[in-house]
Specification:
elongated, two-stranded antiparallel ribbon, single chain
């Protein structure tokens, strides 16, 4: 009777396992084995993403800043009331009428009554206008991003899955939309539109021209997923196109879409600020960061804080969303991040 020492069987199995030569790609199925091993640990992609995000201090800070801006936008009316001023309320006692309406005190009139100072000439509280400007900017950015993601995902999945004439038609529509001078059209349309809700109009116009980028990403992912074994099995099992698209294809493209969505938001914030800066966006007295920066240009020598404060908020919002989006792209769509 032959006996085997403990662990000898495992060592023998390891010795028999083929080892790829240096410099050669791993054997077919190695990636699937690695994926299966990761799945065997009980960690979902979202758990792995959260674990990875916790290991990056810069991402944690960015996520905290993003949550702070979202909370500030959601509670803007209460924050403005906490400061004691509404964004349209004038405080003539905070400016000097003999110096062209310059704020009284140092650093643009920062005081216990006005936490971030006041606007020159009008005396409106900058804290109230900044927090309400965050509400306007983030509302437009999130709403436009939602339109872009929903339209782009639907078009990309349809083009990639059905192919043929559907793919040709949607691809040509993507090319046409991307080649159109969208910024010029936005400026022209927002300039001639008078008695309309500017926030709704800006959201619609920005969203109309942003969907092809998402559609291209989703189309490429769908082309690689529609011939997978589990999709073929669902098709053979009698599942209809709608069930396959919603149950099999959509979960497969959700990672890149979420990463792309996070990267879209800072671009939307910048677009809204640029349009408001050019005078075709949000109209006074509704506050907006871009509008405040445009108005502060005339006072950057006499009251630089009026320019610095909204510019700092805009810079921090765009930077935080960009860093968070880059991290999510590296985790959820690593191949897209390297390309």
């Amino acid at each position: 009777m032959t006996t085997t020492a403990p662990g000898a069987g495992g060592e023998a199995a390891k010795a028999k396992a083929p080892v790829p030569a240096p410099g050669l790609p791993p054997a077919p199925g190695a990636a699937e084995d690695a994926t299966a091993a990761a799945a065997a640990t009980g960690s979902s992609p979202w758990q792995l993403a959260r674990r990875e995000l916790r290991r990056r201090p810069a991402v944690r800070v960015s996520l905290g800043v993003v949550l702070l801006f979202v909370l500030m936008a959601a509670t803007a009316p209460w924050l403005g009331a906490l400061g004691g001023w509404s964004p349209e309320e004038f405080d003539k006692s905070a400016i000097d009428p003999y110096l062209g309406g310059q704020p009284l005190g140092s650093l643009g009139g920062i005081s216990p009554e006005h936490w971030l100072g006041v606007e020159p000439v009008t005396g409106r509280d900058l804290f109230a206008r900044v927090v309400h400007g965050a509400q306007v900017s983030l509302l437009i950015a999130f709403a436009a991003t939602a339109i872009v993601v929903v339209a782009g995902t639907a078009a990309g999945i349809a083009a990639g899955y059905f192919g043929g004439r559907t793919d040709t038609l949607l691809s040509r529509l993507m090319d046409l939309t991307m080649s159109f001078p969208s910024l010029i059209f936005m400026i022209a349309m927002l300039s001639v539109a008078k008695d309309v809700n500017r926030i709704v109009l800006m959201t619609a116009v920005i969203g109309v021209f942003g969907w092809p980028g998402v559609a291209r990403v989703v189309r490429g992912q769908t082309l690689s997923l529609k011939h997978r074994e589990y999709v073929d099995a669902a098709r053979v099992g009698g599942a209809g196109p709608w069930r396959i698209l919603t149950r099999d294809i959509l979960p497969g493209v959700s990672g890149p879409v979420i990463a792309y969505t996070t990267l879209l938001i800072p671009g939307m914030i910048s677009t809204e600020a640029a349009l408001s800066y050019l005078g075709v966006g949000v109209r006074p007295p509704t506050p907006s960061w871009g509008q405040m920066i445009a108005e502060s240009v005339a006072f950057y020598e006499t009251d630089p804080m009026y320019f610095v404060i909204p510019s700092t908020f805009l810079f921090l919002a765009v930077l935080a969303f960009t860093l968070l989006g880059d991290a999510l792209r590296d985790i959820l769509d690593p191949r897209g991040g390297r390309s």
